[in-house]
Amino acid sequence: METLLRSDVDYFRLGAEIRPLPGGGELYWMPGCQRLAAGCLAVHVPRLAEEEVAPWIAGFEAAVRAVGASLARLYLQSDHPRLGAALAAHGYEKKVESAFLSAAQRSAATVEGLIRPIETVRDWDEALQVFREDEDGPDGHENKAEIWLELIQRKCASGQLSYGLIEDGQGVAGTVGWMEYPGMVRLKNLALRPGRRRNGTGAAVVGHFNGWSGVSGRLLGMFGIEASAGAQLYAKAGMVVAGSQEEWSKWLVD
After folding, report:
1. Total structural domains in the chain?
2. pLDDT confidence tier of residue 105, bands split at 50, 70 and 90
3. How confident is the model at residue 32 (pLDDT cuts 50, 70, 90)?
4. Residues 50, 82: contact at Cβ < 8 Å?
């Protein structure tokens, strides 16, 4: 569970600039991509005393505005009852993300030819077409496809994030990212074209990575928003809920 939580922080750090926040915590933002949900957010938020909460929120929102973003978004990976209550009172929306890990007993089967690593400009062009068709966004947020592509390419340039095209025998069905750790493979941003959903392709992708990680004795991990299609897919694929984290967000009005 600790590695899974850390993988989220690692992902948002890739290609990002880091700004310390007044009162503690860090703002990760990617110049040129800061208006995307994944392009600007806060993590490592400290536990705050009652009198520190309101000033911290004000400082956080000021930092978001200062980098040219308009969505104030942060993750709480541990219990913050005072801050959570204050965020709700300030109009923030909470989403609970369930942490999924592979079960102790699992198949080691993989699907030959299902995932084609992205290596060429043409591959990225095909990925861009998937992003354009995905109205919900690969990360569950509405994104401008071209800017999302730039964000992912910059993160992949770090060498810590890999991305692949999902092929189902009828061409490119979607895209998926992954990060590798000594004891875990982290699945990221599984996205399927609208016409390729609910036909077993998503389950095949999860099963493929479950088998691939299992061969090397590693767990497979990912997050899914509670009650979302992604969370339902992971549960049906045999993944087990091991914990959760909270995402809080609010659109800032000038």
Report:
1. 2
2. low
3. very high
4. yes
